[in-house]
Automatic annotation (TrEMBL), chains A, B:
Organism: Arthrobacter glacialis
Chain ranges of the HTH arsR-type domain: 9-103
Official protein name in the record: Transcriptional regulator
Keywords: DNA-binding, Transcription, Transcription regulation
PANTHER family: TRANSCRIPTIONAL REGULATOR, ARSR FAMILY (PTHR33154), TRANSCRIPTIONAL REGULATORY PROTEIN (PTHR33154:SF12)
Lineage of producing organism: Bacteria, Bacillati, Actinomycetota, Actinomycetes, Micrococcales
GO molecular function, one term: DNA binding
Keyword Transcription part of the UniProt annotation: yes
InterPro entries linked to this entry: ArsR-like_HTH (IPR011991), HTH_ArsR_DNA-bd_dom (IPR001845), HTH_MetalResp_TranReg (IPR051081), WH-like_DNA-bd_sf (IPR036388), WH_DNA-bd_sf (IPR036390)
Length: 103, 103
């Protein structure tokens, strides 16, 4: 077996406010973020009841990961998702909470 | 003379988080918002030193107005712009401050 596949994540310094706000401007993506904020860490994509197709859903998770909002890790054939709360709060204090409260 | 022309503004209830976040996801629009937040009310569009053409600038002001972030009023041949701080803070508490702090 080779090494586990891994997905690219921006460092906190690489996160851009443009990408963060743009990612959060979509209601499906905010649903994902709200579910991650309200539940336990590391939820599989399949655990989200989203009103979109699987490929659209995959796209939304990728946009969130590339913005730096969520982490994604392979676990077998699943991808587990987590909210990067601490890093986001350090980089953009208050932003995540304000968006979640407004949602 | 007819009545003063007026521009459409969403009421606080009509503001959508999608439109607000999408409007704020652009650096030129955040520059406008930051200048309005830091200065006096009712600044003419010409008072903003923006690195874009006049028509692009006009577009950015319109996106901000249509989202509910700024007010625009005709004053003679100029348009005066103001930040809708109070209404935004009531509708989406903490959001404007978090974005301005992150900018």
């Amino acid at each position: 077996m080779g090494p586990a596949r891994s997905l690219e994540h921006p460092t906190p310094e690489q996160m851009s406010l443009d990408s963060i706000l743009s990612a959060l401007a979509d209601p499906v993506r905010r649903t994902i973020v709200a579910q991650l904020a309200g539940g336990h860490d590391d939820q599989a994509c399949i655990a989200f009841a989203l009103p979109v197709s699987k490929s659209t859903s995959t796209h939304h998770f990728r946009v969130l990961r590339e913005a730096g909002i969520i982490s994604q890790q392979y676990r077998g054939t699943s991808i587990l998702n987590g909210l990067r709360t601490e890093e986001l709060n350090l980089r953009f204090p208050g932003l995540l909470d304000a968006v979640l409260a407004a949602n």
